[in-house]
Amino acid sequence: MDDLNPRETKGLCLLSLDGGGVRGLSTLCILKCLMDKLNRGRQKAGLTTVRPCEVFNLIGGTSTGGLIAIMLGRLEMDVDECIAVYTTLMEAVFAEKKNRSRVNMWLNLQPRFDTKKLKAAIEGVLESRGIAKDAPFNDGASRSCRVMVCATSSDLADTVRLRSYDVERAGVPVPATICEAALATSAATSFFDAVEIDGRRFVDGALGANNPVREVAAEAKHIWCYEDGADLMSKVKCFVSIGTGHPGKKPINNKLFGFASETLVRLATDTEQEATLFAEDWRVAYEEKRYFRFNVQHGLQDVGLEEYTQRGTILTATDSYLKEQAQDTGVTECFANLMVRECMYLVRAEEYA
């Protein structure tokens, strides 16, 4: 233990969550598998169970991944709570369409779902936890887990990071409430209205960073490496990136709404390309089993962003993915990594698997 690299017990743990509509349930199931394994290990080591907010120093997400990040980090839910709330939210929001037609009389795309319902559902979650509907996302409190969600500025079309914490030299912060941050990161184009915060309009963060892993890394570097100029990778103990399912290859048949369709396909493709490129950049951490990417490869490509009734399909595909030998090994290796940091001593994964 005396020779143990300080990074092994004090290094940063980062969590990045992709966007993907109702398929965010797959993200949560993967995280649940990891957290369940970690907590079984902790219990066998005589330790109490922990929530994601007690494991990860920074949780970042885009779109529904951002919504999940807020629930796990800012609202400090455990994964089971988050799954229950997320499932209820998706049904409440997507059960009824606001507009049957995708365009208005001026041939402009109009939101298919009611933003007011999404807002009411989020406010209901806050009230159920004794949190005011207008509670600020960054309330100035010191928390071990920071939360960052991505939104897209509709004025400049660039990615903006909404934060639950203060950070120096990061420009003028956006004074969002918890609800506004959740709405801004989730306002998917053609699904919901844009969200206005302090005079600025925001839409779904997926337009700029559907896979926010690079945004999470950049944010972590700004927080923990700015002063000493250190390389972020040298400070990271465990970096986990979770997707919402491989998009597969699907033809686009709808000519009238080709642009919108092409945008969704491009987002899904860019997500995978980003995952590949980031893994190459972080090859050393990947080979040292400090960077992990989990994403269901088959079975979710036909589940639409709003198809909440496909819950069974999502659960089945994710369960099959986790049972694959390679993924089971990956989860075990990720668990072993976290156990070293959590328990402060080396743990053989097979003892607690």
TrEMBL record:
<keyword id="KW-0378">Hydrolase</keyword>
<protein>
    <submittedName>
        <fullName>Phospholipase</fullName>
    </submittedName>
</protein>
<keyword id="KW-0443">Lipid metabolism</keyword>
<dbReference type="InterPro" id="IPR016035">
    <property type="entry name" value="Acyl_Trfase/lysoPLipase"/>
</dbReference>
<dbReference type="GO" id="GO:0047499">
    <property type="term" value="F:calcium-independent phospholipase A2 activity"/>
</dbReference>
<dbReference type="GO" id="GO:0019369">
    <property type="term" value="P:arachidonate metabolic process"/>
</dbReference>
<dbReference type="GO" id="GO:0016020">
    <property type="term" value="C:membrane"/>
</dbReference>
<dbReference type="GO" id="GO:0046486">
    <property type="term" value="P:glycerolipid metabolic process"/>
</dbReference>
<dbReference type="GO" id="GO:0016042">
    <property type="term" value="P:lipid catabolic process"/>
</dbReference>
<dbReference type="InterPro" id="IPR002641">
    <property type="entry name" value="PNPLA_dom"/>
</dbReference>
<feature type="domain" description="PNPLA">
    <location>
        <begin position="15"/>
        <end position="215"/>
    </location>
</feature>
<dbReference type="Pfam" id="PF01734">
    <property type="entry name" value="Patatin"/>
</dbReference>
<keyword id="KW-0442">Lipid degradation</keyword>
